[in-house]
Write a structure and sequence with these properties.
- The complex is a heterodimer of chains A (111) and B (114).
- In chain A, 0% of the residues lie in helices and 52% in strands.
- Chain A is built from no helices and 11 strands.
- Chain A has strands at residues 4-6, 11-14, 19-25, 33-38, 45-50, 55-57, 60-65, 70-75, 84-91, 99-101, 105-110.
- In chain A, strands 2, 4, 5, 9, 10 and 11 form a 6-stranded mixed beta sheet that branches. In chain A, strands 1-3-8-7-6 form a 5-stranded antiparallel beta sheet, with no helix packed on it.
- The termini of chain A are far apart.
- The mean pLDDT of chain A is 93.
- Chain B starts with a strand and ends with a strand.
- Chain B has strands at 4-7, 10-13, 19-25, 32-38, 44-51, 57-58, 67-73, 76-81, 90-97, 103-105, 109-113.
- Chain B is globular.
- In chain B, strand 5 (44-51) and strand 6 (57-58) form a beta hairpin.
- Classes of the chains: A mainly beta (111), B mainly beta (114).
């Protein structure tokens, strides 16, 4: 089993739609979770951290489910500019800054 | 703040030669930097952890004699791909952690070995 798994997609959604991605992780000792956005041929950019209680940043909501070992990202009111690959990152264990990335989920928002 | 600069952005080299990639933290000190590699349509794969003043630690399956890492100062880590071959062609990205903030990535280096 991979340390971090994501559905690669692509998810093709119309503008204005709500879309959700999940990311599962295998290491129960993982403590830090992030969502990154990566545009084609560019480096990943931090989108948001994921906190235990869930957190929201504008149209983006991140949640953590420790019992089932997954994190999720919800995007509301999708914009064309949201088209990108969304990578989840999970640290390898408590106190380590070694982050393992999922393969990424590709999102295409269609006009 | 928290800017990580990587150089060069792209490089083409011939098989058998060596290529050095630099990763600098511009406005913070980074005792630890990480090197990732990303093949097309694949995820970032952690290659090694670069520790200032000590030897790098490599992930399983990554050849330490082929991918030389030097972290001589708190703001600079270098990755040298030695005896490059076409299979090393990839996108190499460094990242650094500054203080309590999560990882910040360099802009990446696209290496093509001919």
């Amino acid at each position: 089993r991979k340390e971090v798994e994501q559905d690669p997609g692509p998810f093709n959604v119309p503008e204005g739609a709500t879309v959700a991605f999940n990311c599962t992780y295998s290491n129960s000792a993982s403590q830090s979770f992030f969502w990154y956005r990566q545009d084609c041929r560019k480096e990943p950019k931090l989108l948001m951290s994921v906190y235990s209680s869930g957190n929201e940043d504008g149209r983006f909501t991140a949640q953590l489910n420790r019992a089932s070992q997954y994190i999720s990202l919800l995007i509301r009111d999708s914009k064309l500019s949201d088209s990108a690959t969304y990578l989840c990152a999970v640290n390898r264990g408590s106190g380590t800054y070694k982050y393992i990335f999922g393969t990424g989920t590709r999102l295409k928002v269609l006009a | 703040g928290a800017v990580v600069s990587q150089h060069p952005s792209w490089v083409i080299c011939k098989s058998g030669t060596s290529v050095k990639i630099e990763c600098r933290s511009l406005d913070f000190q980074a005792t630890t930097m990480f090197w990732y590699r990303q093949f097309p349509k694949q995820s970032l794969m952690l290659m090694a952890t670069s520790n200032e003043g000590s030897k790098a630690t490599y992930e399983q399956g990554v050849e330490k004699d082929k991918f030389l890492i030097n972290h001589a100062s708190l703001t600079l880590s270098t990755l040298t791909v030695t005896s490059a071959h076409p299979g090393d062609s990839s996108f190499y990205i460094c990242s650094a952690k500054g203080g309590d903030s999560p990882l910040h990535f360099g802009n990446g280096t696209r290496l093509t070995v001919t």
